Amino acid sequence: MSGQSTYVPKWGIAKWMDSRLPLPRLVYDSFIAYPTPRNLNYMWTFGGILSLMLVVQIVTGVVLAMHYTPNATMAFNSVESIMRDVEYGWLMRYLHSNGASFFFIAVYLHMFRSLYYGSYKAPREVLWILGVILFLLMMATAFMGYVLPWGQMSFWGATVITNLFSAFPIVGETIVTFLWGGYSVDNPTLNRFFSLHFLLPFMIAGVTILHVWALHVTGQNNPTGVEVKSYAKDTVPFTPYATVKDSFAMVAFLAVYAYFVFYIPNYLGHADNYIQANPAVTPAHIVPEWYFLPFYAILRAVPDKLGGVLLMFAAIAVLAILPWLDTSKVRSMSYRPLARQCFWAFCVTSVMLGWLGSRPAEGIYVTLSQVFTALYFAYFLIALPLLGLFETPKKLPGSIAESVLGKSAGGSGAMVGAAAASEPNTKG
Amino acid sequence: MIDNRRGRTVAEANATQAGDPTRRDMLFLATGAMGAVGVAALAVPFVRQLAPNAQTVAAGAPIEVDLTPVAEGQGIKLFWRGKLVFVRHRTKAEIDEAAKVTVASLPDPQPDSARVKPGKEQFLVVYGICTHLGCVPMGTAPGEGRGDFNGWFCPCHGSHYDTAGRIRKGPAPKNLEIPPYAFLSDSKIRIG
Fold first, then answer.
1. Cβ separation of A181 and B50 shorter than 8 Å?
2. Are residues A77 and A203 in the same domain?
3. Is residue A421 part of a domain?
4. Is the reported ipTM for this assembly greater than 0.90?
5. Which residue has better confidence, A300 or A81?
6. Is the CB of B155 inside 8 Å of chain A's CB atoms?
């Protein structure tokens, strides 16, 4: 975003390295000198938190794989062995299982931030689409990971989700047989899910690099949605400002995570998954993990199998075309009075769908699911395209510096901004 | 020799500038096409390995089931190819109930006679797999709820099946599927 690299190698070895593989330069430009808008709030810390959670999941996951046995007859017992026999195995497993939930908490807040502040709009469409791909990869990884303990919810969750593909005409049955490697969810299914569950996090890491790259090309959005006009006035260097703020947010996030791991480690799970998989008995109430519930509610809202499956996939696919559905040039909802109300209604809708997904599929719950499914799509397909044409946005600030330091700052206050940017250490 | 080659390269460069395809363009295309065919051929084993392996296929051989112990009104569960199969010994009332339904009014229209073997109407053999998303419908074991149509009820997403295993209400698109089977004697069947 700043264009020119300001890295100056200080030591001989750094100069030697810089002319061969300029990795220190890349790190310096990306995480030290990188200019960040000076008005970023704490909603901008979830990118860093997500990177941290990916590392947590890979580290604990690799450890768990050392003790786990991906075999239908042994998987359940090997997980119990991790819990009881392996030293600190309980900690590794609880960190990993709760880590998945906290990964999703962070990603949903990260997406909330993008939706509220219009971070998906030009020129950040590719950045946003990479984010949607990351979200899909996360969902696939979490789903396959949940199958591995081979409990009742693992087994029946796998059965229900793989059967989604049988809804497609003609090829559906073949796809499902090839997913299973048999005629039902069984040992071959468990084996391949374990292999893919190990692979996908590294694909997530790869796409994350592209995501950060795209971010560093366009620069970060900010709460005003006004682009950076002057690096000196509108930005502060990543280190120490963003580094310290991100670190503080990570510690706060990890504190809540630790509370779950140490005090209520099974709060987000299902008791049924401590019963070994039994293909002859379906649990009375199959529920996916909480982070899939809104999509599950959409699936069940449609009284037609293929229709439900298509609508559920559409609920995610609609995100990918969002940059072209929102017709407003104004990014931040702070300056869009009508769109902001629709946005909060959309947030309530998403939470309601989550709640409905956890209810049995009968009576009033089905009707409500249909209403909120309609509202979910209405936000993307009706509200955002139309509001951009009819809404009168509030007046945007002239610059980021002006929004922070007041109107006068645009002129004389620019001095303050320039001073802060050039001497970060005196202010930090 | 070297001069020859150099001479040809210059000629080719001139030809390319003029927009005419050269011998080299042809070779590039042919090589690329061969490479694409090779990659496609290599994809076959990588996709085929996902299919059920020989052991799984072999384990799917036909099985014989003796229905003598299944009393009227009772149902049993068994596995074939890892899939759950229900056999229900239907009562006279249940058969009548299934037969008198107007077939055209059903979501997946099928008369009761198409769901059982002729002369063996009392035995209904179906997969115990909800055609919605594969849960096990309740109603086989004693005491389980049988839904609004006295057949089976899937607790996952609320599909109701009747006494012929036909879908009557809920998200499931089709009737409970019927495995391939034949009567070997009055009370013995072979599934598969």
1. yes
2. yes
3. no
4. no
5. A81
6. yes
B157 is catalytic: yes
pLDDT of A427 reads 36
Token pair listed for A274:
């401590």
Which residues 298-357 of A have a C-beta within 8 angstroms of B? 300, 302-306, 308
Q: Which residue of B has its CA nearest to A176?
A: B51
Whether B30 and B67 share a structural domain: no
Summarize pLDDT for A343-361 with one digit per residue, the tens: 999 999 999 999 999 998 7
- Give chain A's domain count: 2
Q: Which residues contact B145 (CB under 8 A, 6 or more apart)?
A: B138, B139, B153
Out of A181, A286, A304, closest to residue B171 by CB? A304
Answer yes or no: do A163 and B173 touch at CB < 8 A. Answer: no
Residue A31 resides in a domain? no
Q: For the whole model, what pTM was predicted?
A: 0.86
For position A263, which CATH number holds?
1.20.810.10
For the segment B108-137, the average pLDDT, to the nearest whole number, is 90
Can you list the alpha helix ranges (DSSP code H) found in A182-230?
A: 187-218
Reported as type and span, the H/E element at residue A248 is: helix A243-263
Range of the domain at B36: 2-48
**Cβ–Cβ of A159/B171 closer than 8 Å?**
no
Radius of gyration over alpha carbons of chain B, in Å?
Answer: 30
pLDDT at A123 over 60: yes
Contacts 24+ apart (CB under 8 A), A305-311: A305/A167, A305/B131, A305/B132, A305/B133, A305/B171, A305/B172, A305/B173, A306/A167, A306/A168, A306/A169, A306/B173, A308/A167, A308/B171, A309/A164, A309/A167, A309/A168, A310/A167, A311/A373
A401 domain-assigned: no
Q: Which residues of A touch B138 (CB under 8 A)?
A: 282
Q: Do B53 and A179 touch (CB under 8 A)?
A: no
What residues in A contact B82, CB-CB < 8 Å? 182-184, 186, 279
Shared domain for B115 and B164, answered yes or no, is yes
What is the per-residue pLDDT across A259-279, written as a single tens digit (0 to 9) for each? 999 999 999 999 999 999 999
Same domain, residue pair B24 and B118:
no
